[in-house]
Amino acid sequence: GDLARMSAPLAGVSGGVLFTRMPLVLPPKPKWETDYLDWQAEWHSRSGIHRQWPQWLEEGETGPADESASMQRREPAPLEQEADRSGDRRTVRRRIDVHLYLVLKGKGGEGSWFFPQVAHRERETLRQTCERALETYVDLKSSENLQHFFVGNGPSGMVPPVGGSWDALRDEAKGERVFLIPVELIRGTPKLSKQVTAQVADFAWVAKDEMHEYFKDEETQEYLQKLLQDKSDYYGSGTSQTY
Description:
CATH architecture of the domain at 13-28 and 87-233: Alpha-Beta Complex
Distance between the termini: 63 Å
CATH class of the domain at 13-28 and 87-233: Alpha Beta
Largest sheet: 8 strands, mixed
Oligomer: single chain
Number of strands: 8
Shape: elongated
Structural class: alpha+beta
């Protein structure tokens, strides 16, 4: 009856994840802001003691005895990491100023690249299908330090499945589609699950401006440029701590 239809798997529907390593540094400040901060520091040096945030907030008013130490600027992490110099894209320790997304390369045929995805099963919500996609391809139990966070219960976008097309996707009656939910990597170094080694030939952590190297379809490239994030825009350049 109606209950059976509601709990049945949705034909042609898959759930996938945009497994994302967030930027580890905020963008550099624009020149107008660095000029202002230079003027501000100079003004404070003449008019009184200037404690730089966040040291005094973290250490309290009784902070270090040596005021000069608290006024020293922190050095940001270098933007160029070892993996950037070697060209290694199989690590999250690269391009630390942008979002990176996990993509997988299938075995056989042309070896198309895709986001982790699995077909919908009966009685599953879309969120549960996407959780299963992540658990299928990523070994979430290999490290106690590995933490992740699902951003909501609904998808942020959809793409055709491996071997599918956008023309077929637009056919609401027959088209197959993969709904994608963003998942943030909070900490740890993810590893691929051993159960998918027979299906996955390679993997990479890829930035938005590198996606065209992995997804050759022009419509997919155009769509991903709208869907994915590049540099951090959570706080804006006005709060960058890299200066």
